[in-house]
Write a structure and sequence with these properties.
With about 350 residues, the chain is of the alpha/beta class. It contains 9 helices and 19 strands. It has 2 domains: about 1-165, 2-Layer Sandwich (VC0802-like); about 170-350, Rossmann fold. It has helices at about 15-25, 65-75, 120-135, 190-200, 220-225, 235-250, 285, 290-305, 320-325; strands spanning about 1-5, 25, 30, 35-40, 40, 50-65, 75-80, 85-90, 105-115, 140, 145-155, 155-165, 210, 230-235, 255-260, 275-280, 310-315, 330-340, 340-350. Helix 3 links the parallel strand 9 (about 105-115) and strand 10. Helix 5 (about 220-225) runs parallel beside helix 6. The two termini are about 20 Å apart.
């Protein structure tokens, strides 16, 4: 078993759990604010997640008190899995012993009061758990430890585990305003990454991802950075040219393709991509009449189901009725508040017969 520390706000938890399950884990279950457990993980995909920032092997769960955390650590023998090399460490023994026969590794303890929901002193917990490790022959190294013990407290529970990975993503360095081509309303990189994982997660990193309303190319930038082959199109020449400029900057070492095309009439053969993702033009921004917007979404979803088994559509309203009429199964739908006048509706769609 493993546990995930979720990124973002409380309102992002449902999206974060779904993203992790689609792209990097199985049986993901929320257990407390900002925390979820998982039965299995894909080690190669942890670093691609947008709304998970730590993954640990789960030693156990207990009450959210220092005493309970210490007792759990003292009484537990755990299997620790790291980078696919398995080793067993016993806290019960006189030392933390490794089956690899290597010297006792250095350890750091990190305690978190997740979203400040627990009545706990993290500094006190770190000292107490560190004392347990030291008494069993471990060396503490807070700068470059071999192992990291993480104790996460949320509400009335504590999860204890050995860190596998922390997700280090430079979302801030890819701000939409820093791109060669920028337009107001561009999607934040973290959100774009999450939507890519929702759409293409089961087939990453070998997926081919299409955005038929490519805009400034933010979704495809994130898809390309996590290994996908990316294709984009836009009905406006200005957007297609601008998106190409942005992809040229961020995906300069890999192949990509941008072309001008209407999303309702794509020059692509059936079943040529793994996932389609598009952000519907918002009515007031795009000045598209309501009936024309409905026709656009219907046509785009009809084309998407022809060329791909999975799709994620982002809009300022729900389109699950249209998606269902076209033939998609709506596997998940989320609402994400962006600001006072905009709430995004994210639809995860799957064609009949596609792998779950």
């Amino acid at each position: 078993m493993y546990y995930l520390e979720l990124a973002g706000e409380a309102s992002d938890e449902t999206l974060g759990i779904a993203e992790a399950e689609y792209a990097a884990a199985s049986a993901v279950t929320r257990v407390a604010p900002g925390l979820a457990t998982a039965r299995e993980i894909r080690y190669d995909r942890i670093q691609t997640l947008a709304y998970t920032h730590h993954v640990s092997t789960l030693i156990g769960q207990t009450d959210a008190t220092k005493k309970s955390a210490v007792e759990l650590l003292q009484s537990t023998s755990v299997e620790y899995e790291h980078n696919d090399d398995r080793a067993t460490e016993s806290i019960n023994g006189s030392k933390m012993a490794s089956t690899s026969g290597q010297p006792t590794p250095t350890v750091a303890v990190r305690a978190q009061n997740v979203r400040s929901t627990a009545d706990i002193s993290t500094a006190s917990v770190e000292r107490a758990l560190g004392d347990v490790l030291v008494s069993n022959g471990c060396d503490i190294d807070l700068e470059e430890p071999v192992y990291e013990l993480r104790a996460c407290f949320a509400d009335d529970i504590c999860l204890l585990g050995w860190a596998i990975n922390s997700v280090s993503t430079a979302f801030g360095s890819r701000a939409p305003t820093d791109r060669p081509f920028f337009q107001p309303g561009s999607m934040a990189p973290r959100d774009a990454r999450a939507y890519v994982n929702l759409a293409a997660g089961p087939t990453l990193p070998d997926a081919t991802v299409l955005d038929p309303m490519v805009g400034t190319g933010g979704t495809l930038i994130e898809a390309g950075l996590i290994g996908a082959t990316v294709i984009g199109s836009d009905a406006q020449s200005k957007m297609a040219v601008g998106a190409a400029q942005n992809l040229d900057q961020y995906l300069s070492t890999q192949a990509w393709n941008i072309f001008k095309s209407d999303a309702t009439e794509l020059p692509l053969l059936n079943d040529t991509v793994d996932a389609v993702i598009f952000d519907v033009p918002y009515g007031r921004q795009s000045k598209i009449a309501a009936d024309r917007l409905t026709d656009l979404v219907t046509g785009a979803l009809t084309e998407a189901i022809r060329i791909a088994p999975r799709c994620v559509i982002i809009a300022d309203r729900s389109y699950d009725d249209i998606a269902s009429k076209v033939g998609w199964t709506v596997t998940a739908e989320f609402e994400q508040r962006v600001h006072r006048s905009l709430t995004r509706h994210i639809h995860a769609l799957r064609r009949a017969g596609a792998e779950k």
